[in-house]
Amino acid sequence: MSVKRSVTTTISHMLIAIVVLSILSTGLAIITLIASRTDAEAVNISGSLRMQSYRLAYELTTDSPDLKQYIDQYDASLKAPALDALNRFYIPSEISNEYHLLLERWNQLENELRGNRPENYINQLTSYVDQIDTFVLSIQRFSELKLRVATGISIISFLLTIALVLYIIQFSRRKIVEPLNRMVRASHYIQTGHFDHQPLDVAQPTELGVLATAFTSMSTDLAKLYQSLAEKVEEKTIKLTQANRSLVVLYDCLQALSVSQVDRQCFEQVLSIVHNSENLVVIRLEVQDSGEGRWVLTEGDEDKNLDWQFLSLQQNEQHLGRLSWQCSDTAVHPQLIENVANILSRGIYFNRAQKRYMQVLLMEERATIARELHDSLAQSLSFLRIQLTLLKRIVPSDNAKAMSVIGDFDRALSSAYRQLRELLATFRLTIQEADLHEALNQLMTPLQAQTTVPIQIHCALSSQALNAQQQVHALQIVREAVLNAIKHANATLITVNCDSATNGNNMFTITDNGTGIKSLDEPEGHYGLNIMSERTSRLGGTLNIRRREEGGTSICLTFPQQ
After folding, report:
1. What residues contact 304, with CB distance under 8 A and at least 6 apart?
2. Domain hosting residue 475, numbered range
3. pTM summary value
4. Which long-range contacts (CB under 8 A, 24 or more apart) does 402-406 make?
5. For residue 305, how many other CB atoms are within 10 A of its CB?
6. What domain count does the chain have?
7. Pick from 132, 154, 186: which residue ends a domain?
8. What is the CATH classification number for the domain harbouring 31?
9. CA 282, CA 450: separation in Å to the nearest integer?
10. Helix %, strand %, coil % for the chain, to 5?
11. Is residue 450 part of a domain?
C-alpha cells in the first residue's frame, strides 16, 4: 500500500502556510507603515497652508515688502515632496484630485497676489481655506485608514495563525495521536494473547494508514500462528494424553499377564482392560490350535449394525489367532491395539510354553517313576521268577499240594509282572506338545504303527480348555481306550473325537466298529478299566463305556474345563 497523502507533508504545508501568513501580514504592515511615514508631514504642511494663506492676506493689506517672499514660501510649501507624493498610484484618486484642485486654485490666487488685487484674494480666501481644510481632512482620514488596515491585517493574521495552529493540533490528534493510541492499545491486547482488538483505521491514505494496515496484517498473521501453535499444542497434548493412557493400558495388560501361571482369566482381564479403556462395543480373542480346536473369549455385546475390525495374532511367524473388535464413535488407536495384540500373542505363546513345560515336568517325573520301578520292583519280580523256576525244579512233581501253591504263586507273579509292564509303558509315555491336536497325533503315531486299522482324529477342542495335568490324564485315557480297541475290538475303524459338550465341559469320545465290549467287568489280571476310572475321578469327570447299537464300543470321557 502506497502513501497517497503524507502526514508530514500536510503538517509541512500547514507550517509553511503559517510562515507565509506571517510574512504577508508583516510585509503588509511594513508596507503600510512605509506608506504612512510622510502622512504626518503632509498633514503638517497642509495645515500650515491655512496659516500662510491668512498671513498672505495680512501682508497684502499692509503692503509688506516681504509679500513676494511669502508667496514663494507658500508655493514651495504647496509643492513640497510630502504633498507631491500624493500623486502615486496607491493614493486614492479623491485625494489626488483635491490636491490638483488645490494647485489650480493657488495658481489663480497667486495671480491675484502678484497683480496686487487684494479684494479678489480676500474674497476667495475663505473658500480656499475651506478647500485646504477638506484636503487636510482627506489626508488625515487616509492615514487613519492605513492604520486601520494595518491593524486589521495584524488581527486577521493573528487569528488565521491561531486557527492554523488549532487545526494542526486537531489534525495531529485525529490523524496521528489517536491512531497511535489505538495501535498502543492493540499492542497491549496482543501482548496479553488477545487478538480481537479494536479495528484500526486502515483506510487512511497516510503513513499511519500504511502502518495500521501492516499492524493489522501482522496481528492477523500472529493470530493465525498463535491459533496454529495452540492447535498443535492441543494436538500434542491429546497425543501425549493418549500415549499416557495407552501406556497405562499396556502396563495393566502386562501386569495381568505377569503371573506365574497364565490362564484364561488373565486373557479375560486383558480384554476387559482394553474394552473399558477404549470404550469398545465388543472385543473378541480367538485362538486357533493346529487342528479344528479354538477358544474364544469375548468382552461386551456384539452390535450387528457395526462392522468388525480384525488384527492377526502372530509370534515367531506362527499364526496364533486373531483379535477382533467393534467401536461406535471413536476409532481405537491403531498403535495401542497393535501393542495389545503383540502382548496377547506373547501371552498365548507363553501359555503354551508353560503348558509344554508342565507336561515335560510331568513326563520327566513319570519317567523317573518308571526307572525306579524298573530298577527296583521289576528286578525283584525277575529275581522271584528265577527263584520260582528253580523251586519248580527242586520240588517233586508228584507233590500235588506243593505244585498247587507254586502254580498260584506263578500266576500271581505273572499278573504282577504284566501289570508292571503296563505301568512302565504308561509312565514312559512321552508327550512334548502343548497343543492338544498335535499331542493326539504324537500319541496315536506309535499306536498306529501297531495295527493296520485306521485311527481317525477329529479335534475341535481348544488346548486352553485343559491344563497340563488334565491333558496328560485325558491323553492317557484316550491311549488306553485306543489300545484296548486295537487289541480286543477286531475293528476296521477307530475314531477319536474331542469336542465341547452342550454344558461347556470337555468331551473325549473314542469309538470303534468292532465286536463291542461284552461286559464292564474286567477279567482277572487286567486293570486298564480301573486305571481309566481312577484317572477320570482325578479329572472330576465321568467315564461312560457302552456298546453301540450299530456295533462296536463307545467310550465317552467328560470333565469340566480348567
Report:
1. none
2. 431-562
3. 0.50
4. none
5. 8
6. 2
7. 186
8. 1.20.120.960
9. 50
10. 65, 10, 25
11. yes
